[in-house]
Amino acid sequence: MNKNLLTNRKGSALLVSILITAVMLVVGLGINRLIVVELRVERSLVQGGEAYYAAEGASELALLDIKANLAGYEASGEEATLDNGASYDYEISALGPVWPCDVYGDKVYDNEGELWRVLEVEESVIVPLFSDDGEDLTHLGDFKLDMTMDAGLSGSLRWKILGINGASRLTEAISDYEDIYGGGFYDWDANNKTAGYYQDLGGSWGGRQYVFIEEYNVSQFLRDHEYNYLILTNLSAGDYDVYVRLTDGDSDFVCEYVGVEADGFNGDFVQQIDTFVKEGEPLPVFDFVLWEKEV
């Protein structure tokens, strides 16, 4: 047999073997890359899911804190690490220097940076005039109530403050009506404001005795009572809105909506859940995304 022919056949076989090996290597590397990518995706989904559940759990803990404490409870930097390596922290924001505190919801009007609570006809809103930090209570002793309407309109606002008498421990109230004319700005100061108040004179045979004081100072009422609540009601004759806000308090006001910012962490992933719950209502409102990578 011709030696050159054998040599050529051996060379061709070697070349084919090299080509087949190269193809298999490329295919193997491609499959290996797909496996690595899939593993990374799976790890990301697991870490993102664990971060989500950590954030959700933190939000539930914050809601439990709000439910277990009185109005105005706040918390900052509450954090923990879970057994699976995920961690969380949350903050509760319930107080502000003015009321309303923020534009959350559809009843707050932003007038060049000033926030006003819009009261529709026959609508009432309740504002706690005390706050709870989990240990001590803070009571408002003075504040201003601003009220206005659109130009050309007129209406009436009824306000009432309910509180527990510090001496008798009975619930008492002071209240009055305010006439509002559109375009005007009414500055109502608790320190200078007086209104009608049924003052308790103590028990007697068959019941208790009260005396009606026509002009009783509102700030004095606030100092004499605890757990005070302000109730504002729009009693306008027409279908007209009244705009109200509280300012210049000697301590912060309790926001109508309590905000919770909860974060869950795992690896490179962060889950963020914002929760808003209205004071006195059981159902919260969530605002969240599934999960996102930390940047």
Q: Classify the helix fraction into a percent range.
A: 10-25%
Counted by DSSP, the helix tally is: 2
Distance between the termini: 72 Å
Taken from the alpha-carbon principal axes, the silhouette is: elongated
Largest sheet: 6 strands, antiparallel
Give a quick set of tags describing it:
single chain; 295 residues; alpha+beta; Jelly Rolls; 6-stranded antiparallel sheet; 2 helices; 19 strands; elongated; disordered C terminus
Short description:
The protein has 295 residues and is α+β, with helices and mostly antiparallel strands. Helix content is 25%, strand content 47%.
How would you characterize the overall build of this protein?
- This protein has 295 residues and is an alpha+beta fold.
- The chain folds into two domains: 1-93 and 258-269, no CATH class; 98-251, Jelly Rolls, CATH 2.60.120.
- 25% of the residues lie in helices and 47% in strands.
- The chain has helices at 3-68, 218-224, and strands at residues 75-81, 87-96, 108-111, 114-119, 124-128, 130-132, 137-139, 144-148, 154-165, 171-181, 186-189, 194-204, 207-217, 225-234, 242-247, 253-266, 269-278, 285-288, 292-293.
- The strands form four sheets. Strands 1, 2, 16, 17, 18 and 19 form a six-stranded antiparallel beta sheet that branches.
- A hairpin with a 6-residue loop joins strand 17 and strand 18 (285-288).
- The longest helix has 66 residues, at 3-68.
- The protein is elongated, with a radius of gyration of 33 Å.
- 26% of the residues are buried.
